[in-house]
Amino acid sequence: MLQEYYGQNPILFIALALLAVSTLIQLIYYWFIYGKVAFFKQKNEFVRTDQGVSVIVCARDEYYNLKENLPLLLGQDYSKFEVVVVNHGSEDDTQYLLRDLAAEHANLKIVNLAQDLNFFTGKKFPLSIGIKSAKYDVLLFTDADCVPRSNQWLRRMAANFTQGTDIVLGYGAYSKSNSLLNLLIRFDTTRIAMNYLGFARAGMPYMGVGRNMSYRKSLFFNQKGFISHYRVQSGDDDLFINKASSSKNTRIEIQQDAHTLSLPKTTLNQWIRQKRRHLMTGSYYKASHKFVLGLFAATQFSFWALAIVLAIFWYQPYIVAALVFIRLSSQLFITKKTMSKLSEKGFLFLVPIFELFLMLVSPLLAFANTIKKPVKWR
After folding, report:
1. Which of 55, 91, 209, 214 has a Cα-to-Cα distance from 131 of 20 to 30 A?
2. What residues have CB less than 8 Å from 270, skipping those under 6 apart?
3. How far apart are the first and last CA of the chain?
4. More confident residue, 28 or 377
5. In the predicted model, is pLDDT for residue 172 greater than 90?
6. Could you tell me if 286 and 206 are in contact, meaning their C-beta atoms sit under 8 angstroms apart?
7. Cα angle 14-26-315, degrees, rounded to a multiple of 5
8. Orientation of helix 351-371 relative to helix 268-279, angle to 10°
9. Are 113 and 140 in contact, with CB atoms under 8 Å apart?
């Protein structure tokens, strides 16, 4: 009698219909957007090119990272490149390290900045100075705490600059450990990559990550640099790409030897502060991008909420179980394929748990940003 009553309950029937719609939309995202990364076949061989490339790194008090990582940037297997390091008000021994390295490497250019320009915040001012100081049109960006996975990183990224290409989006991985926080960070990094790389492949690029991306200097000046969002503390990477990218001028590069690798945060508080900075810029995206990203988030929430409610009331349990199975199996399959492409491992079966955690925590962090701005880039 109880099951018969719920079977005739119009509210639960509507909830089931909404669950089915949410599941369908989620499947579209996984198979037709994220699947473009999971099934992406990039040629192993790359074109040798003589076009010059300027690698740009902004650093503040990064002596130890630069000492370890800068020789690997300078040792890239490429015939025509420079590394521009913007020393942004460092108070450690960075300037002496850079001076010594510059004496050994003719292609290391040092730009020393003692202070910020008043109306620019975060990395945008030093990054702008580094771009203006660059010799070549193709610019390749990374951070002082990042290391390329191989000496072919520069060549892989530069080979994508065929005629009509202005932007190349790469993958910036984090080093692996077995801690739960590390697994969460690497899942989140993979999830974000599935988004921005998948949408770029689908003809709607909307962001990149400053740890590993490239664009033309001429594009930077044509877009008037960061002027459209200079008051926003962060966004030197994703907001610029959001404004300057198009379906025709953007490519992706996800070969393993084109990845960069950096150390992740080691405490929850550090990760929360980093996450808050990353969440600040979403509200400045184009309306179309906010819609497609918001639609995924909304149907993701409704999928889980409706599935839980219908399970509690034991309404049409076989249909609900089938929808949950189809969605979760698709998610795990596409995520596994993507993890293989991005050389990630170790967190596949934690994906639903991490998804629920981020689904609940991210709105709270975004709300916290409306009350108090996170700490600026140091």
Report:
1. 91
2. none
3. 65
4. 28
5. yes
6. yes
7. 30
8. 70
9. no
Length of the chain: 378
Asked if 325 and 331 touch (Cβ cutoff 8 Å), the reply is no
Tokens, residue 35: 């699947």
> How crowded is residue 317: how many other Cβ atoms within 10 Å of its Cβ?
12
**Buried/exposed 363-372: b ≥16 CB within 10 Å, e otherwise:** eebeeebeee
pLDDT per residue over 36-58, tens digit each?
A: 999 998 775 565 567 999 999 99
What is the spatial distance between Cα 188 and Cα 271, in angstroms, rounded to a whole number? Answer: 11
CA–CA distance, 28 with 199 (Å, rounded to integer) = 12
Torsion of CA 340, 343, 348, 350, to 10 degrees: -160
pLDDT tens digits for 304-334?
999 999 999 999 999 999 999 999 999 999 9
Phi/psi class of residue 25: alpha, beta or left (left: φ > 0; alpha: ψ in -120 to 50)? alpha
Question: Where does residue 9 fall: left (phi above 0), alpha (psi -120 to 50 degrees), or beta otherwise?
Answer: beta
Alpha helices, H only, the chain: 2-7, 10-29, 35-38, 63-74, 94-104, 124-133, 153-158, 180-201, 217-222, 238-244, 268-279, 287-312, 317-341, 351-371
| C-alpha atoms less than 13 angstroms from C-alpha of 375 in its C-beta half-sphere | 8
Name residue, tokens 């390329």: 148
Sheet holding 260-262, edge to edge: 146-148, 260-262, 172-174
Contact 320, 17 (CB under 8 A): no
Token output for 122: 């975060």
Phi, psi of 119 (to 5 degrees): -90, 0
What are φ and ψ of residue 220, in 5° steps? -55, -45
The single-letter DSSP state of residue 212 is S
pTM for this one?
0.91
CA distance 15 to 4: 16
CA 317 to chain centroid, in Å, comes to 38
Q: List 185's β-bridge partners, or say none.
A: none
Q: Domains of the chain, with CATH numbers?
A: 2-39+288-371 (no CATH), 53-270 (3.90.550.10)
